[in-house]
Structure formats: C-alpha cells, structure tokens
Predict the 3D structure of the following.
Amino acid sequence: MKKITVLGAGSWGTAQALLLSKKTRKIALWGRVEDGIEEMRAERENKRFLPGVRLSDNIEPISDLKTAVDNTELIVMAVPTQAVREVLILLAPHLQPDTIIVNTAKGLEIKTATRLSRVAEDVLGREIREHYAVLSGPSHAEEVARGLPTVVTVASYSREVAFFVQDTFMSPVFRVYTNPDVAGVELGGALKNIIALATGMCDGLGYGDNTRAALMTRGLTEITRMGVALGGDYRTFSGLSGMGDLVVTCGSKYSRNRQAGELLGQGYNLQQAMEQIGMAVEGVHTVRVVNKIADQMGVDMPISKACYDILYKNTSVQETVNTLMKRRKKHELEEIAVNIKGW
C-alpha cells in the first residue's frame, strides 16, 4: 500500500500511525495546529498525548486535510467521538469514491443519540456502507505504540472491506478478527465506558476486587441487554469489543473513563474531574445518550442510570451504591429464567 491517512493526532491516532507505518510507504497523520501538529512535525514526537515514542520516518504530521487525504487508499478515523461528524463534513469534498474509511472512535453521538456508522451515512450517504468499517477491542494507545501484543476485531457490512482492513492492520503484535455485526461492535465499544466510570467510582470510594468484579459482570449484562435492543448480536458482547474492551477499560491505569470515575468517587465534581483528566472521557457523554434511550425503550440499565444520576443530578456516589445494593431480589438469569428447566 502506498499511503494511509490517519485523521486525529491524539494518543490513539498517533499509536495507529506508528502501527501502520510498518505496512505502507507513507502515513499522513492529520491534526489541528492548535493541537500541536506542527510541533509534532518538528520534534518527531507527540509530546502532549504520547510522550517518549518517536515517530517513524515515513509518518508525516500535517494540518491540511486535503493534502492529507490526497491519493490515499485508507482513511483511519481517530478523532474524539463528538468531533466525528464535523471531520466527516470537512472530509466529504475530498473523499474519493473507493477510499475505505475505518472508524476507531468509541461512543455515541450526543445530539442524535446514534452510532457513528449512522453518522457516516448521514454525512456521506448510504453508499458509504460498502467502504466503511469499525475497529474496536481492548487496545490502549500507550501499549499499541510500544508494540505490546494486542487483539481487536473489525466489523463491516462488506466481507471484502473487513478482510482488507484485517490484512492492513494485522501484524505479529496486532491480531485482528472479523465480525459482520457492525451495530454490536460499535455498541460494545461505546457502552463499556459507562461501566468503567462506575468501576472507577467504586475504586475511588476504596472498595475492593469483589465490588469491581460485580460491576464488570453485571455491567456486561447491561451492555448486552441494551446492545441487543439496538440491533446487536448477543454473541458479540462476549467477544473482544464487548467483554474484552470492558475488562481493559475497567482495570487499566490508562483508562480515562476509570480515572474520571475514581476522581468522582474521591469527591471531585464532574467539571473538576474533566479538568484533571485533560482529554476526552467518552463515557461522560455516552451515559447521557444511553439514559435517554433506556427511558424511551424501557430497557433496564441500573448501573448506567446510577452513573447518570451521579454525573448530572449530583446524587451521592456512596448513597447510589447503597441504593443499587438494595434493589429487589432477582434471579441472576431473570430475563431467560422461564427457559431454565425447573423454574
């Protein structure tokens, strides 16, 4: 491949540029001047978002979008979720018909309460489905950039596109599976951020491994419940973009969602926590969308509802945990208990 373009020069975009630089002659890494793209070009390092990792010689940091996407075969979207629509609008006049887009942002658009593939269709037309994929899974930028073994999944409406993206990203340290369930892969990557916030809150309160394990397990139940209600395949949520991403986001020191939750558990308010993190925390946005959808569709999401109340209704973290623990008695498999022999 002659050229790949990565849109977004944060930690994740930079890490993907480093990963893909071994698979192509040229990587165009696009970012805004205000985000330090010119400094990256001069210093050959993303000191703001990914310090200590030198850019490969074939990575060209660039601020002009038209130049960045000119004659490219593959565009990797690595901008924050709430900026995806804006960047796609800027991209549209310069997009060639056969160029493949791989979205690697995780979240739901707030103003439309929808998945990012639908945002892409809204901006670029339904025909983009044949050239669109989503890559997701447990993949912290800091570890990908260092070449640590990582495994993810790529979903697309097109088998050929899924296989193309798989071959492009695949390496001895980056294994890629394929999955036809675009909705499920997107929703798993978005919804797990809420559970990571909740896990961080309990860590901030000083709770232990038992609490974390319970939140992750019941959180996966919620993710699956909502994911299936929105069109995902239930099997996807036990895979890399569901359980896999949930495990890493709830337990990792690199997880901004878990870090933000921990600060909230320690008594910071939402604004203070966001200022402390200094980067996008997608779960803070996603929980607003999910709470709205859950109310509209009648989907039971107690952990997500608790996070929403803490973030946007200023309820006490401690009191909210107590309320969750005192919910009515239930069968663990209540939603399918009627099909269990003997019950």
